[in-house]
Amino acid sequence: MLEIVYAILPIFLIIAAGILAERGGLLSASVSMPLSAYVLRLALPALLFRIMAGAEPSELFQGALWGSLAGAQVISYGIGYAGDRILKRRGVGPAAVTGMACSSSLTSFVGLPIIMNLLPGNREALVIAGLLTVMPILSIVLGQIQLESMRRREQPEVQGRNLSLCLVLMRAIFTNPLILSMLAGALLCLTGIGLWTPLDRAATLLGATAAPCALFSIGLSMRNQLRVGFAGNSGPILRHQAGVVSVKLLIQPLLTWGLLVLFGVDATLIAVCVIMSATGTAVGSYLVADAYKTVPEECAMSVVLTCAFSLLSLPAFSYLCKALGMI
Predict the structure, then answer these.
(1) Cβ contacts of 185 within 8 Å, gap of 6 or more
(2) Does domain 2-323 have CATH number 1.20.1530.20?
(3) pTM more than 0.70
């Protein structure tokens, strides 16, 4: 257990350093936005490009693994969405935000650094973890489809002014630097071209900055997220969050585990997927909720609370995987 804690604790210490830097006035919370942009548009794409370029073709085509992960994510989204509609009797918009909060994982900012610490010499695990960094897009696209459809019903003039919903979403997906960098790396992998040595070294240097910058950025923005979360009536929000935390940090990892076992996926890869699904809610969910002005304070609180409680879920699932000999 101590080994697991030592692998995970540095992740949260860097987040704490960001919190302290913002709290102590060393850096403004506004620094978080350009720092996150640097991670998402340059450092993390460089890391993923290098991971994909160095992968084996067989590692990219694992239908059982990707189908199980997509299934667990969609089911978790459905649980959050249906639970909100049935129990809180709210509309499509708030329910879609709850669905995103219950199913989109913080894979790129927290999950990938943890796998890099837990399994530093396992190239296949690193490839799968790299691919998993784009999995939250599935939940976010599901939520965005429902939110965009709702907006178009409520504001008919939007439909005539903008591109079709399908084109809007396709453009959002295929202009994403993470997806583009992974596709470029996968192309080099499948063609056997490989990476030019100077480019490999440059990508290594850039990629090495992704994890610390991402984690520090989370810490810098944490107090603002809390401020947004408590801006409204915090009592109902906190009661709502108990369900979100339970689905995100317990039900989704168990669903992921069960489906992967059912389809006979390798034990080490099961451990990677379960641990990454036990991370908090992806920040992208809050950005979408805020863009559509649909309960952004709830989603901000989901990001903060699931990230905080993942201090329990991540060591627990990591230890369980270790005890079962999966890592």
Answers:
(1) 48, 49, 50, 51, 52, 53, 55
(2) yes
(3) yes
